[in-house]
Every structure is written in C-alpha cells, then in structure tokens.
Amino acid sequence: MLGLKLATDPRWVNIVESNIEEILTDHAWCEQKAASNAISLITYNSELEELVTELLIIAREELEHLQMVHDLIKRKGLTLGRERKDHYVNELFKFMKKDGSRKDALVDRLLFSAMIEARSCERFKVLSENIQDQELAKFYRDLMISEAGHYTTFLGFARKYTDNIDVDKRWAEWIEFETSIITNYGKQETIHG
C-alpha cells in the first residue's frame, strides 16, 4: 500500500530495544515536528478551507501522539531527552522542489509530508511485529494505523491541488529518492535512523 521499495530490516528492532529511552525521545520529537509541519502548511495555505480543516485534525492528532509518547516515557520511569535532528527528514527536504508556482510548492510539500508518514508507518509496523515489549507492540500498531491515514491524506491533497504536475510521476520520483537514501538508515535507535 505504501509503495516503499525498501523495507526496514526487522533486526533494526534489536537496536531499538537496546535503548528504549532514545527511541521514545526521538519518537516524541518526530510527533512534535509532524504537528508543526501541519500547522506550517495551514499558515501558508489558509485560503484552502478543506486542507486547513483536515490539517487541523492531523495537527491535533500529532500533538495527541506526542502526549501519548510522553505519558509512556513517564510510565516507564524514563526521561524525555532533548530534541534530536532528523537527518532522514533533512535529506528528504533537500529533494523538495523550490521553484515553480506557489501551488507547485504546496504539492511537493504535501508529497514530502506523505513520504515521511509512509516511512513512519512502515517503521511502526516493524516495531509492532518485532518488539518484545507487548505494551510497545500494541502502541506502535495503533500509531501505524494513524500514520497510514495521514499518508493517504497528504497524497490525496497533492492530487487535488495540482495544476500542472503529474503527481503519480512526481511521487515515483520521491519513492526512488527515498530508496536511495534509506539504505543509510536503520542503524540507530531512532524512528528514521
């Protein structure tokens, strides 16, 4: 469904399990960034009523996920660490087209957002199926479903708001680019790392 070409090696979960505090801290900050991204899209596209309405829902859900991760961190007696840089997302950001019309920029930003949600969904699936901690397995299964919904929302809006971009062709380019960079990841106890 997600169209990703390279699956995460399930052995990545062994790395994650070696430092649960780190993965949860990284995950919390990913949720904060996802909420900020939705708010940023609203700010720059406030005239698109349907987009604003849906992104308000997503922003709220992402903040709820941040709260859920934070609650989990506290329940486990862990500490929310400082914000982490997400090198994967930064590499994806560089692939975003910076030229063209305002609407072209919106479409590419939506595809960028869809890509992040797709990979997060895939990673949550791997966690839910392979992590030993049953509370975390259920937690990540539930979040995987939510991320899949966000992915389809962003992709759907990219198709809706395009004027002259072949969204399927551009999405294929995003998938190819993501495939070329994801091989560098899966070696750290971070959501995208």
Overall pLDDT level: 94
Q: Spans of 5+ residues with little confidence (pLDDT < 50)?
A: none
Largest sheet entry: none
Q: Number of helical segments?
A: 7
In terms of structural class, how would the helical and strand content be classed? mainly alpha
Portion in strands: under 5%
Shape: globular
The count of β-strands is: 0
Radius of gyration: 16 Å
N-to-C SSE string, H for helix and E for strand: HHHHHHH
Terminal Cα span: 22 Å
Helical amount among residues, as a percent range?
Answer: over 70%
Which keywords apply here?
7 helices, mainly alpha, 193 residues, 73% helix
Walk me through this protein's architecture:
Pfam families: MiaE. One of its GO terms (biological process) is tRNA modification. With 193 residues, the chain is mostly helical. Helix content is 73%, strand content 0%. The protein contains seven helices and no strands. It has helices spanning 12-17, 20-44, 49-75, 87-95, 102-130, 134-161, 167-182. The radius of gyration is 16 Å and the shape is globular. The two termini are 22 Å apart.
